[in-house]
Amino acid sequence: MDITLEQWDAAFDSQAKAFLVAVREVAALMGDGGRIFAMTYAPGSRTGGLQPWVGMGSAKAAVESLVRYFAVALAKRGITVNAISPGWTEDSVLNTLPTQAQDLIRNWHVRGWTPMGRLGTPEDIGNVVTLLCSAQAAWITGQVIYADGGASLMNAEVPTEIQVG
Predict the structure, then answer these.
(1) CB-hemisphere CA count at 13 Å for 90?
(2) Average pLDDT, rounded, for the chain
(3) What DSSP designation does 152 have?
(4) Which of 54, 86, 93, 115 shows the smallest number of beta carbons within 10 Å?
(5) How far is 39 from 19, CA to CA, in rounded Å?
(6) In the CATH hierarchy, which fold is given to the domain comprising 5-87+123-149?
């Protein structure tokens, strides 16, 4: 409720508007069969609990919508457009949080919020990009790929101890 219009505009300019401009520009330069990616953040675009991120979460949701529109618009050229939505990842925005918050998030994931028992790494996310760039992924377009070790599968209403048993 307290976000200023300047903060809102900054979030949308740096995310949705930037993606819109970038795709329009790069599509004009691309040959057939290329790949375009966006980086989003699933919890920010699907939930409303992290109130300070209202602008960024809304902007990421807009990017995910743009991915679908561009996927349709560029499909006949064989250009795929997808979003990669990492979960909490080491060496990322996580490192900008206070140490206490970082420790809480890491421990939360190790205890089961991420079924794979760890945070992601930059290499994990790079591997998703590599996969989507491969010829075998030419049929995948307009999708949001959750690269989160299964965290997006967890039910926030049920303790993790019950879910991962």
Answers:
(1) 12
(2) 89
(3) G
(4) 93
(5) 10
(6) Rossmann fold (3.40.50)
Residues 6+ apart with CB under 8 A from 61: 44, 45, 46
- Crossing angle for the helix pair 54-74 and 5-12, to the nearest 10 degrees: 30
* pLDDT the model gives residue 50: 64
- The DSSP line for 83-129 is EEEE-SBSSSGGGGS-HHHHHHHHHHIIIIISTTSS-B-HHHHHHHH
CA angle 26, 127, 165 (to 5 degrees): 130
Structure tokens that stand for 55 in this block: 């602008």
Query: Domain coordinates of the chain in residue numbers?
Result: 5-87+123-149
- With beta carbons less than 8 A apart as the criterion, state whether 40 and 63 touch: yes
Please write the tens of the pLDDT for every residue from 106-129. Answer: 888 888 788 888 999 999 999 999
